[in-house]
């Protein structure tokens, strides 16, 4: 029996979503992120209360395993990636936290379809999950993978390079972090970027791999909007531009 518009509307309102890959339905509660109140980390992980909502940033189909900010619209090439053995092995890897696997699943689809910078973002988010789970080996490894993806994609601007530096520092790749920071500093980046780079270099010199916030380097206001508050803007540049791209749902 064909679904009537009224039935479809009620289904959507109840949070029932049809997967764009396997066409099966599942319940995916809608997510509206709260306004960010605290400053983000240097790698732009949002502060609270958004920080604690990571489990709701991505939807995942319980039938085929496809994960994305909105699974109803399949990313180009997603179906082939989801059916392939590497994806099946990834989502079945019980040695990784389940939430991290969700972000890695999305990263895998993005990488397989050539969206390398977006794949880097999702891989970094898996590292954040590992941070919260107290698994430093995983978080360091996934930060290194994120850096490799960033560097394999289109040229990075100054603000994106700051995130690479922070990922390297958090991964304890000290020499690479200092070399990257020094190279960026010599390019005379914008003042705000320069302030963050200076802080990163001090942290690297102190062999400090810990979490630090943007407020440590910049005067107030250091709060940044979470990406889910913004519409997708692929052509957007700078810090706000790629914040918008993290979880674009447009």
TrEMBL record:
It comes from the Bacteria. Residues 24-48 are annotated as: Disordered. This is DUF2225 domain-containing protein. It comes from Roseomonas nitratireducens.
């Amino acid at each position: 029996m064909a679904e009537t518009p009224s039935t479809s509307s009620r289904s959507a309102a109840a949070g029932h979503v049809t997967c764009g890959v396997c066409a099966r339905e599942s319940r995916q509660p809608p997510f509206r992120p709260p306004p960010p109140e605290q400053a983000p980390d240097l790698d732009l992980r949002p502060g609270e209360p958004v920080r604690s909502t990571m489990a709701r940033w991505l939807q995942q189909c319980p039938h085929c395993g496809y994960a994305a900010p909105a699974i109803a619209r399949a990313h180009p090439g997603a179906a082939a990636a989801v059916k392939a053995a590497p994806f099946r092995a990834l989502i079945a890897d019980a040695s990784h936290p389940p939430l991290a696997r969700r972000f890695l699943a999305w990263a895998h689809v993005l990488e397989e379809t050539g969206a390398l910078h977006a794949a880097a973002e999702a891989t970094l988010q898996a590292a954040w999950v590992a941070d919260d789970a107290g698994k430093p080996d995983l978080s360091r490894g996934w930060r290194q993978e994120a850096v490799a993806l960033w560097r394999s994609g289109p040229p990075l601007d100054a603000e994106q390079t700051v995130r690479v530096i922070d990922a390297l520092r958090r991964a304890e790749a000290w020499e690479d972090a200092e070399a990257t920071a020094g190279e960026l500093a010599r390019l005379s980046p914008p003042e705000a970027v320069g302030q963050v780079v200076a802080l990163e270099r001090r942290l690297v010199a102190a062999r400090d791999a810990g979490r630090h916030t943007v407020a440590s380097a910049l005067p107030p206001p250091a709060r940044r909007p979470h990406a889910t508050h913004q519409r997708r803007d692929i052509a957007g540049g700078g810090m706000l531009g790629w914040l918008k791209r993290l979880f674009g749902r447009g």
